[in-house]
Amino acid sequence: MALTYAKSGVDIEKENKAIAALARQLTYKRSGMGAPLTDVGHYAGLIDFGEYALALTTDGVGSKVLIANEMKRWNTVGIDCIAMNVNDLLAMGVEPLAFVDYIAISEPSDEIMRQIGEGLAKGAEMSRITIVGGETASLPDIIRGFDLAGTCLGMVKKDRIITGERIEIGDAIVGLPSAGVHSNGYSLVRRIIKSAGYRYGNPFPCNTDTTIGDELLIPTRIYMEILDAASRFDLHGLAHITGSGLMKLHRITKYGFNITDPLEPQPVFRFLQEEGGVEDLEMYKTFNMGMGFVVVLPRGEAMEAAKMLGGKIVGEIIDKGIYVRDLEIK
Fold first, then answer.
1. Is-contact 135 103, C-beta < 8 A?
2. Fewest CB atoms within 10 A around its CB: which of 28, 48, 201, 319?
3. For helices 110-127 and 77-90, what crossing angle results, to 10°?
4. Which positions fall inside the PurM-like N-terminal domain (predicted)?
5. How far apart, in whole angstroms, are the C-alpha atoms of residue 247 and residue 302?
6. Domains in the chain, ordered, with CATH?
């Protein structure tokens, strides 16, 4: 039987309904300085700060930390934590400034915390941000192992905010490569590995010089080059492809995406699909499939932007729907 994200314990439709139920209760809005400039549901929340907007986003590493525990190697998950937050700021043209982390752990461990700190420090350097504080909670009755999350603060001039509202039919879509699975879909990943009878220390079949665990712990790419592109090109929309895969594109525009020449997914995706018997549609609704970030801009600028960003033109904006070649992503 083909595995799915829902069968592995994460039902995106149920999750979205639950989030909507929560968001409906968040009715109070501050006025004046600090008033919200965006509704709940975009990549980051923006508030009024005079000439500027301050932006906040929060995210975590998710069940990827369980693989780190199995491998007893925790020095990359800090990069993931920062990347998941920073990339969401970049998806609105926001420059990241500062970060705070939150670690919930069953029992404090010097070695685990040292390695987490190593990754956080590396991610902060890559993102040009300062980690200004955080919180650690020992929760033996709630947590098994640990959970790692954080919040990132950014700033952008109000006239430089990129929300996707300027996207037009005919705009080009530029895809930027991911580093691999990044930090989403790991409930399905772990289910596939277990069902197929592998261990994370086994050689990775597509490259026996590494292990399955090492391949899955490759940290999330941080797309800081987006800020340079935003200063050079007329970017109409940006998307960070994470949980729910290409369905994330619904977040930035009412228009559709026709991806006729997608980036080639890394071998790890083929391995997971074959071992789990996962259908193409489910793969594109769960994983980034080799494309971790999407840039939408006028076709006349797309070739130069793609060259600068190290990506390629993968398609164009259409009236509605999301398509990868002839596959419709609902």
1. yes
2. 28
3. 30
4. 42-156
5. 22
6. 31-160 (3.30.1330.10), 172-329 (3.90.650.10)
pLDDT of residue 22: 87
The model's pLDDT over 187-200, given as tens digits with 9 standing for 90+, comes to: 999 999 999 999 99
Phi then psi dihedrals of residue 318, to 5 deg: -125, -175
Report the amino acid identity of residue 61: V
d(CA 162, CA 252): 9
**258 near 324, Cβ under 8 Å?**
no
Buried b or exposed e, range 65-81, using 16+ CB within 10 angstroms: bbbbbbbeebbbbbbbb
CA distance 262 to 255: 18
CA torsion 258-264-267-269 (nearest 10°) is -10
3-state secondary structure of 86: helix
Q: How many residues does the chain have?
A: 330
pLDDT at position 87? 98
Question: 72 in helix, strand or coil?
Answer: coil
Give the tens place of pLDDT for each residue, 75-112: 999 999 999 999 999 999 999 999 999 999 999 999 99
Residue 1 is predicted with a pLDDT of 64
Element (H, E) at 314: strand 312-318
Q: Residue 126 burial (CB < 10 Å; 0-12/13-18/19+)?
A: middle
The tokens for 147 are 């959970």
Return the pLDDT at 40: 83
Pairing of strands 312-318, 172-177: antiparallel
Q: Considering the entire predicted model, what is its pTM?
A: 0.94
CA distance 83 to 43: 13
